[in-house]
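sorry for the late reply, my laptop died twice this morning and i had to redo everyting from scratch. anyway the thing you sent over, i finally got around to it. pasting the sequence first so we're on the same page, its 554 residues, then the predicted structure underneath. double check i copied it right bc i was rushing
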Amino acid sequence: MVSNRAPGPGMIVPENPASSMAPAHEDKTPQDKAPNNSKEDAGPGDTEGIPDLAGGSTYLVDWEGPDDSENPRNWTFGKKWMVTTMVSAYVFMSPVSSSMMAPASARIAAHLGVTSSTLIALQTSMFLGGYGALIWVSVNDYADSLTESVDMVAAGPLVLGPLSEAFGRQRTLQFANFWYLAWNLGCAFVRNEQELLLFRFLSGFGGNGLITIGGGVLGDVWPPAQRGQAVAVYTLAPLLGPVVGPMCGAWIAERGDWRWVFWAPTIAAVAVQLVGLYFLKETYPPVILARKAKRIRRGLVDLERSDQYTTVRTIFDGPEREWRNFVINALVRPFVLFAREPIIQLLGCYMAFMYGTLYLFLTTIPLIFRGVYDEPLGIAGLNYIALGIGLSGASQISARLLDVMYMRLAKKNGGVGKPEYRLLFMFPGTILLPVGLLITGWTARPDIHWIVPDLAIVMVGAGMVLNFQAIQLYVIDAFTLHCASALAAVMFFRSVAACVFPLFAPVMYSALHYGRGDTILACAAIAIGGPSSLLFLLYGERVRNASRYARHSY
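ok and here's the structure:
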């Protein structure tokens, strides 16, 4: 982003830089090509009041004007979409792995000599120490494994997301993907249950951090007025993954070697990694400017009057961006955001309910079509296509409307855009989701054709993706520079919910049946989703203005 401060790049900074480096803070218009990313946006990287320790003049490294080609916001449209496509591909593979082995868990357990239903369930949910669990086992298996699976924690996003703000998006993203694919490949060669559980957890640690890092990349590259389409495409990847995974895993479980549930996603992840090594570029502004400053210090960049400068630093540098301090701050920041930011607290809880409901609902698809309609395992898995149609269809529609609606609302507001404009799509989402749940629950009967619950599943998918996109866009817009940490805080709780919710689904439906069970979920969706969207639409700006991290990030 381009700083709109008075001093430009290379300006000689006086002994007290705070007096001449005060940025102007205001919401940028949607037409701004490269919105502000000044030092005050940096939070821990603030430079105000930092004297020149060498006693001389400082060369301040900043963007070279509003059209600096190094600024990710000024990249070509094609380059931006290349980066967006790459991070979407990275993010897609992890949820595929999280769910693909679920239909094959019984065969894997038999091969390893495992008889405990708890351990069988943990084969899948251990990966979801950061995602949640899609368990494809019997009702008794769920009941037995409930207490064990609650112990899983979403460690990956809390570590890897913030570290991308210390070491850069590119390196952290590629490291996380390499870590994931290496341990996922190892799962195919395990000799006992203990090795499988350990390797699943370690692979999930890397895979689960990809989502938070990817969201940060989009915040770096796309200005608010163009961000809607990119986030619509990106958000679809982690939602389609749990649809594709069990659908493919079911056919592998019936016809092939169970090891292919690990080999197949690993091969795909290796292909993505190789392409990403060439096409994925660094997008985080503090890291880009830090590399530029490093080149200047090495004499690789010629400066006019270079003999007048005693130090070189970026607009983000300061004591808190020293390596040790900044890494500690980066790791702590997600917890600070959740403890202090009402935006993270409320939307994080709603996202947790939503994601938990998604994974809980995913468990009912095989239960309905195998139990009610007596379909074979592979055929029952094809009903996930209905969910995929709802997710992808609504995502494509919203992708074409998100930015258009944002621009129109900003125009009515004097050309000033606000993150709250993103939340309007939550309203149709909060209607489609409960309606779809109700129809699914009350029509899942042998005397009603299977196409009816499938059509309702399409509505559930549409409602889910509209809510997810609105929330993720709002968090990215509100916490642009620290959106990786903000998304990590939000996703921690959604991952825990996704791990726990499916475990009580069969027990709940066994006691209440599908109609009353889905009615409870529908009522909860209305009670939580409606007030949350309305609250932030009306008071979101006031809440942001009271936030240290959200006030200047937009």
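The mean pLDDT is 75.
thats about all i looked at so far, will dig more tmrw
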